[in-house]
Design goal:
single chain; mainly alpha; 67% helix
Length: 112
């Protein structure tokens, strides 16, 4: 099964702070920029910017919660990201197996 890779999605999750934010949102069932900033070594403003990036690629969505927004992970989009990673991993595994077979054939040829 071939899955189209979304470069914007992978650019968004390429940042370690954003990956940690996703982990926190998943483990805690959601959070606000303030609650996330209390658990991360970045400011609330930086967290808000990171949430904006994650929101643009659909990994999180925010709903009004008092004076802030409460963010949660969009599980369907996360599943899509996981499928993309699995597809890319399978493709590279197949390429590496072919390279190994070629290298082994070359080595056998040199030993003869």
């Amino acid at each position: 099964m071939s899955v189209t890779v979304d470069d914007d999605l992978w650019s968004a999750v390429g940042d370690p702070t954003r990956r940690r934010m996703l982990d926190l949102l998943l483990s805690e069932g959601g959070g606000t920029a303030t609650t996330l900033s209390e658990q991360l070594p970045v400011t609330r403003q930086a967290v808000a910017k990171h949430l904006g990036v994650l929101g643009r690629v659909g990994l999180v969505y925010g709903t009004p919660s008092g004076r802030e927004r409460r963010y949660e992970v969009d599980e369907a989009q996360l599943a899509r990201a996981v499928a993309q990673l699995s597809s890319v991993g399978a493709t590279w595994d197949a390429r590496l197996r072919r390279i190994k077979r070629i290298a082994e054939a070359i080595q056998r040829g040199q030993q003869s």
